[in-house]
Design goal:
Cobalt-precorrin-4 Transmethylase, domain 1, Methyltransferase, Cobalt-precorrin-4 Transmethylase, Domain 2, 3 domains, five-stranded parallel beta sheet, five-stranded mixed beta sheet, 18% strand
Amino acid sequence: MSEINVAALYIVATPIGNLSDMSQRAIETLQTVDVIAAEDTRHSGILLQHFAIKTPSVSLHDHNELQRSELLLTRLQQGESVALISDAGTPLISDPGYKLVSLVREHGIKVIPIPGSCAVIAALSASGLASDRFTFEGFLPPKQGARQQTLQALVDENRTMIFYDAPRRIEGTLADMVESFGGERKACIAREVTKLHETITTKPLNELLAWVADDSNQLKGECVVLVEGAKHHKDSSETEINRVLALLLKELPVKKAAAITSSLLEVSKNTAYDMALKLQNKD
């Protein structure tokens, strides 16, 4: 394949369930590189066999990443091309690969992403929660105390929060989220995304908790949990508008003061302008 560059590291996304999501570009890349670094060579071997990919593979996981990265760097420096894949989805998203990519870039070798499936983005796109601003928090701590502490630190986060969770912990996670965020906070569980038993459900946290507790099927398979960001209500009372306008009018013309007040307190520009004129005329 002509696109493959000599001495380049390719970050290749693979399906998170449905094999039809494997892109032609990903297949051709894996067929053409000199070696594939896989999180679990036995697991990835099934995928490679399905697509008739005969490229040799080596393991790269949490326990050997540092040493294996050095070996792969040497191969890249000798002019070979390397592809990195994880067990499913886009590498480095709660999967190994960060050390390898950092090391390779430090040595001036090109890193090329081959985009594809990502459970975080797939779940967000179908959740019905705000998608213009979000934060990916990965896996929460497995122990309840540490998990609650982490959630408490996120209480005022106003972006949509996205977590990975294991099925055996999902009920406890939801209970802790209810305690930290309140039962009325909207959330989504995306389970087994792209697979046969895919379930994507968005409800208030207390309803999600009850639903999971009543249906043992929801305790199976990998989960993405999305939680609505905190709502910060701004004080747009007449008293507060006048207070802000009075401060701004000491330094700014009416139009500018009204525009800033409109943005800060989420009132219409016309209302802010009229109120600013009244304050100015009083003076």
